[in-house]
Amino acid sequence: MPTEFEKLVEIVDAMSDGRRARLESLLEDKLNRPWKPQPGPQTDAYYSQADLLLYGGQAGGGKSDLLIGLAINEHEVSVIFRQTHTDARSLEDRLEKVVEFGKLNHSDHVWKYGDQRIEFGYLEKPGAEKKHQGRAKDFLGLDEGAQMQAHKIIFLMGWVRSTNPEQRCRTIIASNPPMAGDGDFLVEWFAPWLDPTYPDPAEPGELRWAVFVGDEHEIRSIWVDGPDPVEIEGQRREPESRTFIPSTLDDNRYLRDTDYSKKLDSLPEPMRSALKSGNFMASRKDHQWQVIPSDWIRLAQERWREDGGRHIPMWCLAADIAQGGNDKTTLAPLHDQWFGNLGVHKGIETKNGPDVAALILAMRRNGADVAIDCTGGWGGSTRDHLRTHNQIYSREILFSAKSDRQAIDTQLGFRNYRAEMYWRFREALNPGGEYRVAL
């Protein structure tokens, strides 16, 4: 499939000499700029209309230069972050090699040229992002974004704005694949391109629209059909466009003919495979603070089969409720230690309590307990309807409520009921424990 740049070359090649001369005259300003993107993925990323762009993959694909070049050529106020102070300083050094005008102050890490400003920052320390609260920028660049924390990036994106209606605003995450659990959020944020299990995959550079929901402890994406405003969790939200454009070492003419590829070959696995292939799934492994080990999940999935709970009475039916909007109402049946198929329904199909109650009654078997997530108040109508019209007294789950219980193995307490439920599920999935949960 030809890249956007290759398509443009075909158009220009087909022009008459007169039309080509006129085009060059119109583009003279851009052609004389201090930095120009290389043909291929770097050019596609440079001209992408995405609000949030992930660029990268293989090591040496020209990620840092893209951020610096865009900041110089296309933006008034830019901030480019690396994870550590040392890494941020290397970006300053690179900027000085790219441009000979303007002034870079290494003390406050700011380059200025007239009204134009580029600031370099780092996010290693806790709360580092808070120093940028309220400070507007029209370009946010995050170099090696997989090393950063998702909630810090989300916070910084909240200040990407401009009072100049002609100024384009955008965020670009430049990154190699995640390592050792860090950066796994990128696979979720860009699932149509990176997650092999995503049901509707996207092409590189294709625009898709999504909305972030949740809080700093649990950020997730809800994908929608286009840029039009949508109602999510009772609120009107405006989706932003996202895309992923992969780059390779071969796309970077400044490095591809050097011995850099040999240096990558000398790295240990799985780092070598991840950096040489650019595969965001290649080196994924559990983060050191991951609550439930992935191997435990896989073991539980191996125990599951379609008819596994057919002859076991349903013990409980849990409901996570969305009334309207693009989120989904989900019903989860539990037969002893076997979790049945989820019942998933669009939020627009479950606009009120009676609608959800009808779905619960249709799925419920054997007088099973009903548990309803009432965090945020969305489950209250369903709870009341079941109680009033069906004499079913459901269990009300408030994940933000205080917990006074302790973990079995450590006797440590829990911050809230949500933390307890995650840990209880970990205990249930432990291969050395008493349960044999099937997922």
Query: In which order are the strands of the major sheet placed?
Result: 3-4-5-2-6-7-1-12-8-9
Give the N-to-C terminal Cα separation: 39 Å
On the 0-100 scale, what is the average pLDDT?
A: 87
The value of Rg in angstroms is: 26 Å
Number of DSSP helices?
15
Protein structure class: alpha/beta
Q: What is the overall silhouette?
A: elongated
Poorly predicted sequence stretches spanning 5 or more consecutive residues: none
**Biggest beta sheet attributes:** 10 strands, mixed
Strand content: 15-25%
Helicity range: 25-40%
Number of strands: 18
How would you characterize the overall build of this protein?
By secondary structure, the protein is α/β, with parallel strands linked by helices. Helix content is 30%, strand content 21%. It is built from 15 helices and 18 strands. The protein has helices spanning 4-13, 17-26, 28-31, 41-47, 63-74, 85-98, 150-157, 185-189, 191-194, 260-265, 271-277, 294-302, 353-363, 380-390, 417-429; strands spanning 52-57, 77-82, 103-105, 110-113, 116-122, 139-143, 170-175, 208-215, 218-224, 230-232, 235-237, 240-247, 316-320, 328-335, 338-339, 343-346, 369-373, 395-397. The strands form three sheets. Strands 3-4-5-2-6-7-1-12-8-9 form a ten-stranded mixed beta sheet, sandwiched between helices. Strands 13, 14, 15, 16, 17 and 18 form a six-stranded mixed beta sheet that branches. A hairpin with a 4-residue loop joins strand 3 and strand 4 (110-113). The longest helix is centred in the N-terminal third of the chain and has 14 residues, at 85-98. The radius of gyration is 26 Å and the shape is elongated. 31% of the residues are buried.
